[in-house]
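Tutorial, part two.
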Amino acid sequence: MRQAPVAAHVVNRYFPVSANWLYNIVENVEGWHPLVLARMTENLSTVESTATIFSRSQDLPSPIRLIDGVLQRIVGGYPSFYMVARRHDARLLHAHMGPMGYGSLTLAKRLDIPLITSFYGKDASQLPIKESSWRKRYQELFEEGDLFLAEGPHMKEQLENLGCPAEKVKVHRIGIDTDRYQYRPRHRKRGKPLRVLMVGRFVEKKGFVDGVKAFARFVEKGGEGVLNVVGDSDGSESSEKVKVEVSQTIEDQGLAERVNLHGFLAPDELREQYYDNHVLLVPSCRASTGDNEGGAPVTIIEAQSTGLPVIGTDHCDIPNLVEVGETGFIVEEGNVAELSEAMLSISTSKGAIEHLGRGARSF
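Running the prediction step on this input gives:
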């Protein structure tokens, strides 16, 4: 029996708990065997994997890893990645995030195989603004790379604005296994609180402060509700700052008894949160640093697949995933009042949760 060709996925971390969608991408490309070339690995015990996984941090002894790092700076690529990819006869490189694409150019040349690079967010929006050197590096990547994947039209436009030839960019949606997110109709009994869910890292672009303020306004206008927040700081200074702002906003708005902070959850636990709530709130916005969602949070399609309506903003590709009046609501980015009104509408309109939930699953 002929074995499937090997596609090597070049990643930084495989995979953060907030990026379980990366696992889905690697594991579900039919006709190819996945080989993961990662700087480090984490959370692998939470999933079942068919991929062959190589991790520099785990699989290389410290002295060899040091030499590997020094040579990477000299030749432009990790020798360890080259040796593993060659040993497994990789026929294709798929780099995840712009910087990993740039760092894979030498590897692709030495292996003489095509290089695909997927962009996901701040690698296209924030990085080229924050560090001008990356604009020059991206020009080299766009010239020498074979194909670039964007999860939606907005991300595709961002890549073209950075100088990527339009004919090299393809919109390739991030998908999920809908069998793992089965549909369950939501029913909210009269007098019971509206259960609102927000999911993501505590970073400015997620708009969590706006989300908390909108929920407070919903309560002030007579809405009965509970806000469940799944996520946490990623440990960076900016993320810790957002975490403090979210906590302070909860306290200032007198919401301590109505907001549950769950921290990061494993994929199976997050799925149960989808089923336990009535609506997903996605108040994403452009951060002061220029960072944005790039495309749209994968949590939107996960939630919709379970039958959960979505209230989102007109940010990046979110409007391409939410059909107004059919699967949820789209409001103006940063508009706390409109977010609040959307919650009130779902809360007070008879049958809205069930109708929008059916539409969400269908979509």
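The chain has a mean pLDDT of 95. In part three we will examine how such features are distributed along the chain.
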